[in-house]
Amino acid sequence: MVYQRILLFILLFFTASSLYPQPQEKEDGFTLGGALRYNLISTNYESDGNKLNTKTDWDTWRLNVDGSHSGIDLSFEYRFYSASGTHFIHHGYLGYGFSEKVYMMLGVSQVPFGIADFASHSWWFQIPYYLGLEDDYDMGVRFDIAAADNLDLSLAYYRQAEPAGPISGGNNVGQGRYSYDILPGSGAIVDQQGVMQDAYATLHEIDQFNARLNWEFLPGWVAGLSAQAGGLYNPELDETTTSTAYAGHLTATVGRFSLKTELISYDYNALSDEGEKLDVVQMGAYGYEYAGGDNYSGGVAARGNVYVAGLAYTLPVSWGPVSSIQAHLDYSVVDKAEESFHNTHHLVPGILVTAGSVYTYVDYAMGKNQPWLTDDFGKGLGSGVEDPDWNSRLNINVGYYF
């Protein structure tokens, strides 16, 4: 039944595309690009003995291929993260314009959900990224439709999450990836007495549908709605549940100011291998999963609301190679549905300095129950801890893009 709906979905777009003028032919050719990035890190977490932990890390290097041949486009990016001991595909798809207003991407593409491209201004993303709801990539087919001059519609079907890369050491359950996805692993259930109980779930993301509508109601002002519904298949039960997420967003570019706001409600609706509904699900990326010191709390709250707001101001300058400086402030919070859980806060003030092909983010990231800003990595987005302090990390990311 699912495959019949998919075939009908694609057939409708092939038919609809014939109603629009055909796109102009592109010149054949390909370009090779990439990036090399480093991080300077100074952390101030709860267990730091001297309250100052400074080091330099090799962030990533990547290779890109983009181009077109015989009217079919190719866009591909592969990334290497030596500090995490993993490498993986970022995206890779074939693109084809059926008309001037209908474009298809087949392969690993960005999921059309929430604010287009990024909900953030900083290097750190906003907290939806760490829940798999910002800059997510999956394997399937996506259609972008210019429904009107100020109205854009994206529809997509993803059979599965993007392919995972290898990791060095440890238990590889698919966490060698760029964007966060639900993985087989330890989760948790809150019993009737409010006690966390360990629960293992052999989960796989399958058959996900996405729709996003963007409306530019004033020049530079965009309002959008997104919906996502996908299957979480448990082979131990041979049963698939439906996870859902909904979002509304408002963005604006007014002069030198950039505003990004968003509200997300999600329910991962997953079952353990024993058939119990999970309150915490396991997710992973960059070679890591959210398993913490105890398995009762490692993972992500299965249900909640996410609030996002970010503001940036870009100042053009002419200081040698430096062409602009952007000041930004991003804030987001996860309001978890389970009453015994503690919310996650994510606050990032910083600047972005652009100098030719070099982009430098100087961010002072702060968080409460933010997994990447704590010594208790697995717990933050799950149950969290009560009354946490603000942990902080000064992060300077220098990237050369070519």
Write the layout of secondary structure elements.
Blueprint: H1 2-17, E1 29-44, E2 53-69, E3 72-81, E4 86-97, E5 102-110, E6 137-148, E7 151-161, E8 181-182, E9 185-190, E10 196-201, E11 204-218, E12 221-234, E13 239-254, E14 257-267, E15 280-281, E16 283-285, E17 288-289, E18 300-301, E19 303-319, E20 322-336, E21 344-355, E22 358-368, E23 391-401
Antiparallel strand pairs: 1-2, 1-23, 2-3, 3-4, 4-5, 5-6, 6-7, 7-11, 8-16, 9-10, 11-12, 12-13, 13-14, 14-19, 15-18, 16-17, 19-20, 20-21, 21-22, 22-23
Number of domains: 1
Helicity level, as a percent range?
under 10%
Strand order of the largest sheet: 1-2-3-4-5-6-7-11-12-13-14-19-20-21-22-23
Cα distance spanning the termini: 45 Å
The tally of beta strands, per DSSP, is 23
Regions with pLDDT < 50 over 5+ consecutive residues? Answer: none
Structural class determined from secondary elements: mainly beta
Mean pLDDT: 92
Let me know the CATH homologous superfamily: Porin
Tell me the number of helical segments per DSSP (H or I, 4 or more residues long).
1
